[in-house]
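Same chain as my last thread, 231 residues:
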Amino acid sequence: MLGRTDLEASTCWDFPTQADGHPRAGDASFNGVTPARCAGNLVRRYSRPGELVVDPMAGSGTIGDVARTLGRRAISFDLVPRRRDVLRADARAWPLPDETAALAVIDSPYSDNIAYGRDPRCLGRISCRDPRFYEEMRRVAAEARRVLVPGGILAWIIADEYRGGVYTPAGFRLLTVLSEAFEPIDTVVLVRHHDRSASPMWEHRARRFNFYLRGFKFVFILRKPVGESGG
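reply #2:
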């Protein structure tokens, strides 16, 4: 108990900086980078030292960095790896055997708003308004179910989209897809500290044109049912 008093106790996680608590984890300048303490909370709650944590959309590598710091084994891969210790692999085909991981943390694109690389297979090239977006995410979820041990945890980070006057509830739509194969445990709100839209100009536009800036992401926490195995 004494060693867990710094874990988040509510479903609203608000961290002052990306690297708060783990100063050497990931790269704060990377678009959509995962807050290190978010990764730390998930790793400490849902895995034990020595168990395997998987990050199939590694980006700047925050989740793997944090997991290793906390004594877990970690495998990170990405379609466009930016570090030598991040493997090149597609999140729809994990290079791992069945039922080997305790925890998978996925911080995915939520639409086609950011160009992560030139690879045409990149999921960040598909708009969340397109039904294909959710079909491809379903393939990622199927790999997570295959690789996780029974009772293993999937944590998925995603935001909704508001663009061109259109709101798309990408998070809620994804949760519907994930609930087909996993048991929902809880939903966390992860507060976003914007590097671009948190400016007087964007705040002025949001008020003038009557829309909201995206202030948070979802963290969906789900469990692979016990008694089920593989994909």
